[in-house]
Specification:
Layout: H1 2-17, H2 23-39, H3 41-57, H4 69-82, H5 84-90
Helix pairs in contact: 1-2, 2-3, 2-4, 3-4, 4-5
């Protein structure tokens, strides 16, 4: 139970950091959430849904410029979840 409480705390902290102004903090939050999804299969769906919602809520038009690295990481992570066979082609 202590480990599950620790993961819940980590999850909550990471969710709060997704909106942080510094890229490295947001990117760290994304990586923590990805790891939680991998290590705890029962949390995989909520993590992916959360990150997909984060993308929808924060969608802006980037025009010709690249989206920030954290957004690109989330996009790739969600895409792999939606299309698992795509992951095989990338490795």
């Amino acid at each position: 139970m202590a480990r599950r409480d620790f993961v819940a705390e980590l999850f909550n902290r990471a969710v709060g950091q997704l909106a942080h102004e510094r890229l490295e903090v947001r990117l760290g939050a994304v990586y923590i959430l990805q790891q939680i999804a991998e290590d705890f299969p029962d949390l995989s769906k909520p993590v992916h849904r959360l990150l997909a919602a984060h993308l929808r809520e924060n969608a802006i038009e980037y025009g010709d410029s690249e989206p920030p690295l954290d957004i690109k990481e989330i996009m790739e992570f969600v895409e792999i979840w939606l299309h698992p066979s795509e992951q095989d082609r990338r490795t």
